[in-house]
Amino acid sequence: MLQSDQVALAGKTAVLFTKDGGQHNNLHDMQCMWYELASDESYFRHGDFGRALEKFIAVEKHYADITEDQFDFHSYCLRKMAPRAYVGKLKFKDWLHSHAYFHKVAAGAIRIEAE
């Protein structure tokens, strides 16, 4: 539905699979980035640059939240003496901003600013 630019219908369908089954904010709270990126692209194709940029910024905020959560895990690993988990966390942090979704968000925001 999002690929055929039916954003409203896609939103109604997607919220059926959320916990409360009717609140669109649940998709944002669950950090459902694939949905947000697809709706961003649809808004961009329609020329609704304000909404598209708003959604791109929301996805970027997910990445900021994930990065911030890593600080809590840092102290947890040191406190529990879990070096294997700590090394895995460091590798994840290196990989986080290399993820394809992050690149799509950056490219989409740049396209909107260029318009």
TrEMBL record:
<protein>
    <submittedName>
        <fullName>N-terminal acetyltransferase A complex auxiliary subunit NAA15-like isoform X3</fullName>
    </submittedName>
</protein>
<dbReference type="InterPro" id="IPR021183">
    <property type="entry name" value="NatA_aux_su"/>
</dbReference>
<dbReference type="GO" id="GO:0005737">
    <property type="term" value="C:cytoplasm"/>
</dbReference>
<keyword id="KW-0677">Repeat</keyword>
<dbReference type="Pfam" id="PF12569">
    <property type="entry name" value="NatA_aux_su"/>
</dbReference>
<keyword id="KW-0802">TPR repeat</keyword>
